[in-house]
Write a structure and sequence with these properties.
The chain is mainly alpha-helical. It has one domain. It has 4 helices and no strands. Helix 3 runs antiparallel to helix 4.
């Protein structure tokens, strides 16, 4: 059970760092981000050795992939959805489009982070025997 709690805390931290960097909240500065990135890469490399106290690599790699899902969603929203919305914007509907973008970005982008964390936690908890 202790191992699962550590992994849950790890993935909460990973998701918060990804959220902080993509949404420019400045919760994590550049030096902290580099240290966190180095630590995460070292942890990923340790999983390649299949140490008995670590999660199986197959499960861990799936969870890491889930951490990349908000990144892919952010780039899709920023570079494809917003460009298309701005293409149809006219002076008459500019306020409507602006409000729509805010609502859509909240419900779509912010909830993707919550959905990702819920999936990761449920997978980690399913490993408890």
């Amino acid at each position: 059970m202790f191992q699962e709690i550590i992994y849950i805390l790890l993935f909460i931290a990973v998701d918060l760092v990804v959220y902080s960097k993509l949404n420019k909240t400045e919760w994590v500065n550049a030096k902290q981000f580099k240290l966190f990135l180095i630590g995460t890469i070292l942890l990923i490399l340790l999983h390649f050795f299949n140490l008995p106290f670590l999660m199986p690599m197959r499960t861990f790699s799936g969870l890491i992939f889930f951490s990349l899902f908000p990144l892919f969603t952010y780039f899709w929203f920023t570079y494809f959805a917003v460009k298309r919305i701005h293409r149809i914007t006219t002076p008459q509907n500019e306020n409507f489009i602006s409000t729509g973008l805010k609502v859509f970005s909240f419900f779509f982008l912010k909830l993707v982070y919550a959905m990702t964390l819920i999936m990761q936690v449920s997978i980690i908890l399913s490993l408890i025997k």
